Amino acid sequence: MKHIFLLEDDETLGRGIAIALTGPEASVVCRSTLAQGREALAKERFDLLILDVNLPDGSGLDLLRQLRAGGDCTPAILLTANDLELDEVTGLEAGADDYITKPFSLAVLRARVNAQLRRGAPTISRTLSVGPFTFDFEKMDFRRDGAAVELSKTEQKLLRVLVENRGHTVPRATLVDRVWTDGAEFVEENALSVTVKRLRSKLEADPAKPEYLKTVYGIGYTWVVEP
Q: How far apart are CA 34 and CA 122, in angstroms?
């Protein structure tokens, strides 16, 4: 699941954008002031930033400059009522990946957002090191502390979705949709829980107290970034 951060002081517009972008594959965190935005960005990792330039307590442009100066390369789209070419150039030079002037169509915004998410989508085509693990999904080679771990096809699918979205909670419904994609009309309700249990038994040092594959009660599961 993609995690999008939206900084927009117009609450009505912010709600509309959040509704338009939220779905099974994406969640949106919305804030309306620069102070709230800094606080949210300090707590969470996002796949895309959508920043309004003009805010009641500052500028999304200045926030972007600060993020880029600190080495943050998260794709960013600037929203602004200023449609002068100089403003667009200034935004792009500050590190924005795209620039959209108001008013705009939500359909156009969705297309721009999807384009940035595709460009920034993580791929796992080579060996990935995560804590004590090394995962190679192409060669189907999985190891903990150098020791090989045998995983079923279903366990591999589940692990891949979780690791690609590490640090974020993936809802149960999304996991079922991504893992059981064989066209089956019905998946037993406990199939996901059983697969999670098996995966933990193979990867966790203590499956009863998992450090990596954690349950987010009432929502789904997450692969933590740093246990």
A: 28
